[in-house]
């Protein structure tokens, strides 16, 4: 017996039947104009051998950058929006042993969860064992279009 036949056998109305379907598969009940989730929306971070990409801050994957204190990763780069709203792009690879660093809004810096190294917003080491800075990239934000370019000069 099909699911719809089973539900009809229970005496449910067509509205109740539709609600039943929507509970299990919400996407099938959305308007066709609703954008689909974007699982890999960000561009390849490398262009012509150099980091140069532009993030669209209107898409879900980059939503963390629409408010101060959020961060995302793209390739080997961590992009954060500091507590003051400044965009910061650094290598995400800890210079100690290569663990992925995180942005910590409470302290407005970058933290390596492996051995506890910390880096400031310029990538400079503020707490060892790391001794070398994280590579820093340029950022350029256009508020009118909500586009953030990350690049190296
Ligand atoms: S790998 Fe980051 S502090 Fe050791």
UniProtKB/TrEMBL annotation:
UniProt xrefs under PROSITE patterns: PROKAR_LIPOPROTEIN, RIESKE
Cofactor: [2Fe-2S] cluster
GO cellular component terms listed in the entry, alphabetical order: membrane
Domain of life: Bacteria
Matching InterPro entries: Rieske_2Fe-2S, Rieske_2Fe-2S_sf, Rieske_Fe-S_prot, Rieske_Fe-S_prot_C
Keyword Disulfide bond: yes
Domain called Rieske: residue spans: 56-148
Annotated GO MF terms: 2 iron, 2 sulfur cluster binding; metal ion binding
Keyword terms, alphabetized: 2Fe-2S, Disulfide bond, Iron, Iron-sulfur, Metal-binding
Protein name (Swiss-Prot/TrEMBL): Cytochrome b6-f complex iron-sulfur subunit
Organism (species): Pseudarcicella hirudinis
Source species taxonomy: Bacteria, Pseudomonadati, Bacteroidota, Cytophagia, Cytophagales
